[in-house]
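call fold(seq) -> tokens
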Amino acid sequence: MSADTPRRADEGLLAVRGVGEQMRLRGLTGWDQLTDRHLEAYRDHVLTATIPAQRKRALQGAVLLLHSYRDLLPAPCRMATADPWRGARDDALVVVPGPGRVNKTPRIALAMMEALLAWSLRMLEDIGPDVAEARRVWQGLRAGEYRSQAGFDGLPIRDRLARFLAAAGADAVLPGRRGADGGLVLDEYALCRLLGLDSSHGKLRSDLQRRMAAASGLPIADGCPLPAPITGRIDGRPWRESPITAGELPGLVQVLTAALFTVVCHLSGMRPGEVLNLRRGCRATDPGDLLLGRRDKAPGLWTSCRAAGTRPGLGRPVRCGDGLSLPDGRRQFAR
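ret:
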């Protein structure tokens, strides 16, 4: 028995009661008095009624349903007709308009959805915090507001570079990028960001400054490693051995955003378009009719974006999304 069998049975009984009411109005006291002439009159009444076509079909289908049990019913319950409406099927009695546009997009297979959700949660809980922290660090470095840049205020580039190199530890590196020949060369743009220079400084200003960097003896890294710790672990081990680099951030932020989108869609039951239209900061400003009060797909659980955000619930993924600076500053999720 399917989950909606009781509902369909109730609808069928209501339709049979509708037939019985019309019989009463015509002075009929038993089903065995219902002839083809009465059925034609009943059909005319149903077709002219101002009710939905689906309801008209149900009211006439009740007659056919009852007649289909004719051989199992006692004589007083058998209609006085051998073939109601000359054998017409209920779908031929009333033309029901189609549902219009049908979504033909295949559903995601359950096994794939489970794996996608599992890795989205893994990204959110174990990797996401490190990505978000690296993003905040890089934003601070680009704005000249990171704590390591406090001593550079007001200094010329040469003095900033000298102080930066003097403070470098044993494991320090210089930011690098791949040159035309594929080898590593100094990434002057990233170095200017580390020195707290604004975006007008895309490279060092003199060969002297370049010689200072080369003479420091610091190795050139493949990228610009960010001073953000790796705290996430997978199977008891750090999810990566080296720091996140500035060049990796855009791709990691996109993957994290996709994971957050997947989790929010799954737990809230909202349509993808509704999730894409969530505005930045909605977790704190929602009046209660968008996110708060929506039932999670987990039975008996209620979503609250203002709550601590533990799974299941939307608080944590939406809060994590609030901490990311995405290309679209107005929407929670970039399109």
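The chain is about 45% helix and 5% strand.
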